[in-house]
Amino acid sequence: MSSRDVPAPVIRRLTIYLRALMFLVDEGQEIISSEELGNKLGISSAQIRKDLSYFGEFGKQGTGYEIRHLREQLKRILKVDREWGIALVGAGDLGHAIVHYEGFKNRGFYIAAIFDKDPQKIGRKIRGLEVLDSRLLPKVVKEMGLKVAIVAVPANEAQKAVDTLVASGIKAILNYAPITLNVPAGVQIRCIDPVTRLQNMTYYL
Amino acid sequence: MSSRDVPAPVIRRLTIYLRALMFLVDEGQEIISSEELGNKLGISSAQIRKDLSYFGEFGKQGTGYEIRHLREQLKRILKVDREWGIALVGAGDLGHAIVHYEGFKNRGFYIAAIFDKDPQKIGRKIRGLEVLDSRLLPKVVKEMGLKVAIVAVPANEAQKAVDTLVASGIKAILNYAPITLNVPAGVQIRCIDPVTRLQNMTYYL
DNA sequence: TAGATTGTTAATCGATTAACAATC
DNA sequence: TAGATTGTTAATCGATTAACAATC
């Protein structure tokens, strides 16, 4: 597939463009130029046009981009013109916060199932969704056909959780444990570690 | 300052190296080569050696790196050989999860003050720390000399929160609102948006 | 010493930027 | 049309990689 060789930084920026376009639609704006969008995001207009050109021609010379149209195109490109069910592993404080997070809505994702191995947590409901025994994970993930997961367990349990998820057919994992995890080729993984982000800033202070 | 022109990707990776070294110290390992560390992190050994060479010579030919020593050096470089107090803005679900987060410990940060504008939340205690009225933020941040903040308020309140923080002397902001925020030069900002990270993965599915 | 691994250089690779013809 | 902005090319810039002398 030719789109495979789109540079990774381009894909990362597309998600930022999409987020901005969603916001602009809410604001009622209909048209935007690469210049104006770039100013809002701190990205050059040339960069934006170049990024978009990997996928097609979405603008109109002399005018700019029709916001709704570009939004739909980016949703399609990023494959969030649908809703992905997420398997959440870990029903602690962080898991709770993730389930209550409002930001998934209309952005392509929803929490489909919650798992934990703590008998104290199994059976409880979070936002109407029952916490399931981790031992049921392979069965449930397969039955529901889930491809996306979030790992919100302690660092020392994270690799095991990831291994189980991968074995159950999960293809994309967002990991909140502050540790580098290994996955086989063909499985996507990203880590959210607030401390590394903070350390990244203190360097510059 | 010459260290200003160290490439940003290098600093990002240093935080990953530091995280791995902390883990290795816990495991009891004492020495590691760039090759072994690279294998663990999915980074080439040449990359690691090059990254470190921006700051000095930390290894020993034929042997590798003394893990504790390299850890201390990275802590110093990233300025986390101290503890930074964090001003947390927003005491909702996410704010709660951040206060209860165990990952800050021994990594250079602690929550120093919590602010919210909701009268329902002001005065309550989270982990022994009282939620303060947001109107007190400038005074408290200045008095405590805080330089680092975390924004955990809704998207529509985030820019205002950031403006107040910057006016109060904050120099580094970790933003959890799913929106691009503007800060003046000299202030660092990073955004944690799980949905953009997820969208980044679904592209490749 | 012999073997191993660093620190660093030079070459390669890839991403960003500037400029402008095309065109709405 | 005249003005504005796109899409794209070529040039620039920057980061990664490979290789190896230095050396523990």
Description:
The structure is a homodimer of 205-residue chains. Chain A has 205 residues and is an alpha/beta fold. In chain A, 42% of the residues lie in helices and 20% in strands. Chain A is built from 8 helices and 10 strands. The first copy, chain A, has helices at 8-27, 34-41, 45-53, 67-77, 93-100, 137-144, 155-167, 194-202; strands spanning 31-32, 59-60, 64-66, 84-89, 109-116, 125-126, 129-133, 148-151, 172-175, 188-191. In chain A, the strands form 2 sheets. In chain A, strands 6-7-5-4-8-9-10 form a 7-stranded mixed beta sheet. Chain A has a 3-stranded antiparallel beta sheet with strand order 1-3-2. In chain A, strand 6 and strand 7 (129-133) form a beta hairpin. The first copy, chain A, is elongated and about 60 Å long. The model of chain A has no long low-confidence stretch (mean pLDDT 96). Chains A and B meet through helix 1, helix 5, strand 9, strand 10 and helix 8 of A and helix 1, helix 5, strand 9, strand 10 and helix 8 of B. Chain A binds a DNA duplex (24 and 24 nucleotides) through helix 3 and strand 2.
